[in-house]
Design a protein that fits this description.
The structure is a single chain. The protein has 265 residues and is an alpha/beta fold. The protein has a single domain, classed as Metal-dependent hydrolases (TIM Barrel, Alpha-Beta Barrel). The chain has 8 helices and 11 strands. A hairpin with a 2-residue loop joins strand 10 and strand 11. The protein is globular and about 50 Å long.
């Protein structure tokens, strides 16, 4: 197990605001399972940890277990969120899921184009059926729709489309600039998500140039590992935290009861 995380500005407490206990149905949300995540978080210098299950597992979120674990966790403050899969046309479902529980914040993530997943390792056929540039353009159109919908506090892994290293043969900088403009206009917070380091792309979401666009526009960030198991909590922070710091970030956003705060980075 990796040791505690140390930031580039000193031994400051960090946050991990996007992770999954239930994950993909891997384990139930019990007090013990939550506290296992908290144990790793404490060891790795995390002071606040947000549990954000995928919306399709909403019925399996045990609010009582979460609340008990929050009372028992002395060293790691727990936050409750949810990751909503943004799908145009599913507004009623998204609105219901985003208000179903007393969340501290809601993450909106784009995983689909024309209702087909772009991040399913066992089925990458969408990359064969679409021109890659057109697929990227459609993906970022959905990202802009998501942030401008006003439903979410945080935009999850904003360039997930790069996950399998399928790249357009045309420059997408104008698309990224337009998307960064929409993000800044919306007031949403961007998820600096280290899970990409564990995927074929092998880099943080968002990529450095995209993160620089956000910073230039004053867009705030959270840090996350997108952990789907306890040993993945804060994994990759030795890369993602220095990246955010080097780009110019000196604080991260925090949330409680859907109100934003900050912590120094």
């Amino acid at each position: 197990m990796e040791g505690p995380v140390v930031t580039t500005s000193g031994d400051l407490p960090l946050i991990d605001y996007h992770l999954h206990v239930i994950a993909h149905g891997d384990r139930p949300m019990t007090v013990d399972n939550i506290l296992r995540y908290c144990e790793v978080a404490k060891e790795r210098g995390i002071s606040q940890m947000g549990i954000t299950e995928h919306d399709r597992y909403l019925e399996e979120i045990d609010l009582a277990a979460f609340q008990e674990a929050r009372e028992l966790s002395r060293d790691v403050e727990l936050r409750l969120g949810i990751e909503i899969d943004f799908v145009p046309g599913a507004e009623q479902r998204m609105d219901e899921d985003a208000t179903a529980l007393p969340y501290d914040y809601v993450i909106g993530s784009v995983h689909r184009v024309e209702n087909e997943e772009v991040d399913r390792a066992t089925d990458q056929g969408i990359y064969d059926r679409y021109d890659t540039y057109d697929l990227y353009a459609a993906y970022y159109t959905n990202v802009r729709k998501a942030v401008l919908s006003g439903r979410f506090e945080i935009l999850g892994h904003p360039d997930l489309i790069k996950i399998f290293r399928h790249f357009p043969n045309r420059d997408i900088t104008p698309i990224l600039e337009e998307t960064a403009d929409a993000v800044a206009e919306s007031g949403i917070v961007v998820d600096v998500n280290s899970a990409g380091l564990r995927k074929p792309i092998g880099e943080v979401y968002p990529a450095r140039d995209f993160l620089e666009m956000f910073h230039q526009r004053g867009v705030p960030i959270v840090l996350s590992s997108d952990a789907h198991a306890p040993d993945q909590v804060a994994m990759g922070y030795d890369t993602s935290v220095p990246l955010a710091y080097d780009v110019g970030y000196r604080e991260v956003a925090t949330f409680r009861n859907r109100e934003r705060g900050t912590l120094p980075l």
